[in-house]
Specification:
By secondary structure, the chain is an alpha/beta fold. It is 42% helix and 15% strand. Strand 7, helix 7 and strand 8 form a beta-alpha-beta unit.
Length: 273
């Protein structure tokens, strides 16, 4: 598998898009994920991202999208977010990316007032429609498992159930190792995602709250998860996700540390080299 970086890590250093892409390549990454909302950036930024990635020799694996409104109870809000996700899929196509990483969101009002099943069915319908749109572009959607109590996709069982309900070849799973650890998901459960997973996130945490730390700075035991991922035979990228550095002025050292640690872990699991 390739080793990638989500470019949002560089935002903490306030160095600009081009700087982050160039330094990602210089450190040695094989690929890059882009975290940018196509509705927030102008055409010059879009072109800049594409040209800088091409010049650096960094293929874009994924474009990250948080679309919590896809499961809102207001049809108008849902429609906006469907159209927004379509814009993300267009952007991914424009960048030559393989997928849009999609964060779906959580049940509202603590699963009260509105029946949870209604939100679930709303998500299924909207993802089927987005799957059709993605398929026309030759792009896939990778659903992210979130480790929070009210997340619709909070464990492997929910992910498998959701993907089976959507039943669309363009809608697959992302595996986030830190999220699995936080949710108490055992590595062996990943076997249920055979043929369903297309993308991987890696970061560390303290075992209690969401962290996005360089591997080795927390408590996650990566070996079992990476061995199970290797057995899945995913033709994709393991992307490092780093946020909220305690020393944002030294973010490049943080990213380099994460690169070295992840490269070593991947080699030990037979995933790189």
């Amino acid at each position: 598998m390739k080793l990638g970086l989500i470019n949002s890590a560089w935002a903490q250093a306030n160095k600009g898009t081009a700087h982050g892409i160039r330094r990602t390549a210089a450190i040695g990454f094989d690929a890059i994920d882009i975290f940018a909302d196509p509705l927030d950036i102008d055409i010059s930024e879009r072109v800049l991202i594409r040209k800088e990635c091409e010049a650096a020799g960094l293929p874009v694996t994924s474009v990250a999208c948080v679309a919590l409104g896809l499961i809102d109870f207001n049809p108008s809000v849902q429609q906006f977010h469907v159209e927004r996700c379509e814009a993300y899929l267009d952007f991914a196509y424009e960048l030559g990316a393989k997928n849009v990483l999609l964060v779906l969101g959580e049940y509202i009002w603590e699963r009260q007032v509105i029946r949870p099943q209604e939100q679930w069915l709303t998500a299924v319908k909207n993802l089927r429609d987005l799957g059709d749109y993605a398929a026309k572009l030759g792009v896939q959607i990778a659903m992210e498992l979130e480790p929070f109590k009210l997340s619709l996709l909070s464990n492997v069982d929910h992910m498998v159930h959701f993907l089976n309900d959507v039943n669309h070849p363009a809608v697959k799973a992302n595996i986030d190792i830190s999220h699995l650890a936080l949710a108490g998901v055992q590595a062996e459960e990943l076997r249920r995602l055979k043929g369903m997973a297309i993308h991987v996130h890696i970061s560390d945490c303290d075992g209690k709250v969401h962290g996005d730390l360089p591997p080795g700075r927390g408590v996650v035991d990566f070996g079992p998860y990476l061995r199970e991922i290797a057995a899945l035979g995913i033709d994709g990228t393991i992307s490092i996700e780093l946020e909220y550095s305690s020393e944002p002025d030294h973010i490049e050292a943080w990213i380099h540390e994460a690169y070295v640690a992840t490269d070593n872990l991947m080699r030990e699991a037979g995933l790189r080299g």
